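hey so i finally got around to running the thing on that chain from the lab meeting. sorry it took forever, my laptop kept dying and i had to restart like 3 times. anyway pasting the input first so we r on the same page abt which one it is
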Amino acid sequence: MNAPLPRQPEWSTVARATATVALLVWLAAVIVPPLAGPAPASELAGWILQPLRPLVGAVYLGHGYRFFAPNPGPGHSLLWTMTMPDGSTRSGRIPDNVADRPRLLYHRRFMVSEKIAALVPPSDAPADVRDQARREWQPLVKGVAVNLLRREGGVSVRIDTVEHYLPDPQEVISAAVTRDAVTPLGTYAWAERGGP
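ok and heres what got predicted. didnt touch it at all, straight out
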């Protein structure tokens, strides 16, 4: 004869209600941030997100799901050309889909180039706009230059940002040649005190 199974403890009404509320809050914290993301976004989702911001920030649920869709913009990369102590040159790009391994490193460097490109205004922007923007992006580019010079052992490095044109379907079908836009960000060299 089979022995009866031990009775499982039952949750009290308060415990069930607490667990239900916790699950609903967690579900809202996962679903609402993408809906409240960049424009066009739901105002209702933005309103619902406000009390959830501490939780969303603490567990990093506010990343941009809309970054790649529905209408992604052009991609950006940084091109660098370095002068070595013997006068030779080396060049590369950030991110580098061949050298940046593991893949997470590629994605991190991709975000660096995108951040810098977002801060650099177009070359036809008014001079005061370009000067104001330079104060924001130049420290980031200087940091990239320092890391490149240390890693490669160079004397100076020229850095450009490249906007990779995203062709529309008609251009792809017609095999139209498109050109990427290159914006110079400057040349950085080691100063006597040990930094560019």
